[in-house]
Amino acid sequence: MATQSSLTINERLLIPLSEIEFSAIRASGPGGQHVNKTNSAVELRFAIAPSSLPEQVKSKLFAITDRRLNASGVIVIKSQRFKSQKLNKDDACQRLVEIIQKATEKRKYRVKTKPTRSSVKKRLDSKAKRSNIKNTRRKVRRGDD
Questions:
Q1: What angle do CA 69, 75, 81 make, to 5 degrees?
Q2: What crossing angle do the helices spanning 55-63 and 85-104 adopt, rounded to 10°?
Q3: Rounded CA separation 98/68 (Å)
Q4: Is the pLDDT of residue 32 over 80?
Q5: The pTM is what?
C-alpha cells in the first residue's frame, strides 16, 4: 500500500506522500481519561488539481459525488477507528486508495439484447388475456340508448 515515499493505487499509479497532507487531531466520541490529551485521530487532505495524477483520473475524481470531496477539489478523510495514530494514518491512506481506485475503474457497458420471439408472444398473449378479463367485468350495454 504505502511505500516510504509514495502511495500505490495500482500497478500504473503512484501518489507521492509529499502531495498528501496529514494532520493529527483529537478523536471525538467516548474515551477514558487519556482521550483529551492525545491527538490519535488523523485527517488526510489530498488536493486533486495540483496532484501528479493523470488528467483523465483527475476529471473522474472531480465528477464523483462524495461528501469527502469539498468544493475546492480537496478530498478530506478523517480516520479515528484505532487508538494508534499510525494505524489511523494507514487507514486514511487505504480509504484514499479506495476512492481513487473506484474512480479509475472502467464501467462495464450493458449490451443491448432483443427479446426472443416466444417471450414477445407470451407477453402479448398475457396482455390479451388480461384485457379479456377486464372487458367481461364491464356492464352490458343495451343497443337502445
A1: 105
A2: 100
A3: 13
A4: no
A5: 0.66
